[in-house]
# Entry
Amino acid sequence: MMLLPWDKLPEYMRNEKVKPYYDSLSKKKNSLALKRFFDVFTSIILLCLLSPVFIILAVWIKSDSKGPVIFKQYRVTSYGRKFKIYKFRTMVTDAEKLGSQVTSDNDARVTRVGKKIRSCRLDELPQLFNIIKGDMSFVGTRPEVPRYVKQYTPEMYATLLLPAGVTSKASICFKDEDTMLKNTSNVDETYVKEVLPEKMKYNLEEIRQYKFINDILTMIKTVIKVF
# Structure
């Protein structure tokens, strides 16, 4: 996992707000290399161990509602690159055409089985393939859809210096994000103006003080939080 040279970053990322974060990460190349090795090695092991779980979930989802087992959606990762994120489908087919791109509590688009899978974050398991491909990491800023990335402040672009993550400190603190958006009349607006800025405070702090050991601790805390 290597940082691009500063002059190779997208122009919108080469600003004075991002530079301090870039300079900090550029001093931690060994930690970033270890992070990538850990991501690939652990993902391969988990895929082998969890293959029966993948099969069970696939059959459960297919028996509950019509549509594909895997949900794919364009998200944004390092350097603003778009990629297709993989998840087990937890909503009705074409759910994005029926509402917001974020999910609120008691969202009618979530299927019966989907609600149970989401409660313990099993829908995220297919992202192991995203990690192996290099689109994601175990720990990092959760990938947003392009329309929300366009709302980023200059400083928020610093989160695009590293691959998007399956979990993060912000994910743990905002585990009940669906509930926070439950009683709002405009989910998208509330998310962009209230939820996203608060999550970014955690994400930016994690980059500013990046250490590989913090990734391990975040993963442990995520497992504890889920259970």
Summary: The longest strand covers residues 70-76. The chain has a mean pLDDT of 91. The beta strands are 70-76, 82-88, 136-139, 164-167.
